[in-house]
Amino acid sequence: MERKTIFGYVRISSTDQNEERQMEAMRRMGVEECNIYMDKQSGRDFHRQGYLKMVEKIRGGDLLYILSIDRLGRNYREVQEQWRILTKKVGADICVIDMPLLDTRNGKDLMGTFIADLVLQILSFVAESERDNIRRRQEQGIAVAKAKGVRFGRPQIDIPQEFPEIVGEWERKEISFGEALEKSGMSQATFYRKLKGYRRMMKEIG
């Protein structure tokens, strides 16, 4: 019988973020380094070298580990489409490490498949909605601040687009403070200053 391959996929949204947390999760699952594919770029589209190379190699019966569902894409449609291609068209299994219900090796019967598909739809929709809401609140907060005369120029350091997500991960203890600093590209003093301003902005917009 042909030996099935275990793959791992890691994505970080920019080159200055630390992929070690995802890599360590892959090692715990027993994925060999040569079968871990990684991209260091935005997930807004799927023109990603590592991901495409992995899809070319993965076969029916193989297993793919990802740490969280949003590693497959950054919007509801893309997550659904890539899940369908890998599980239905290719015939591979997927295990989402931080969401045990999303493991296609379990519940191969009709009910198990229905539950997994339902959970996938809910989680991917919620993830996209949360990102949209964060972006909308941030834009509203900036508009309110500007209306009150707050200036957003030098010498202030721009808040990276991923800052709200980084803060959320840190507050939920998904990443350490050091990882939050590295992801945001800020010193400790700058991070706290930006965090204070960000929280004040969020409070103002309710």
Describe the structure.
One of its GO terms (molecular function) is DNA binding. Residues 5-149 form the Resolvase/invertase-type recombinase catalytic domain. This is Resolvase/invertase-type recombinase catalytic domain-containing protein. 51% of the residues lie in helices and 10% in strands. With 206 residues, it is of the alpha/beta class. Strand 3 (63-66), helix 3 and strand 4 (93-96) form a beta-alpha-beta unit. The chain has a four-stranded parallel β-sheet with strand order 2-1-3-4, sandwiched between helices. It contains seven helices and four strands, in the order E-H-E-H-E-H-E-H-H-H-H. The protein has helices spanning 20-28, 49-57, 76-90, 110-147, 163-171, 177-184, 188-204, and strands spanning 6-12, 36-40, 63-66, 93-96. It starts with 5 loop residues before the first strand and ends with a helix.
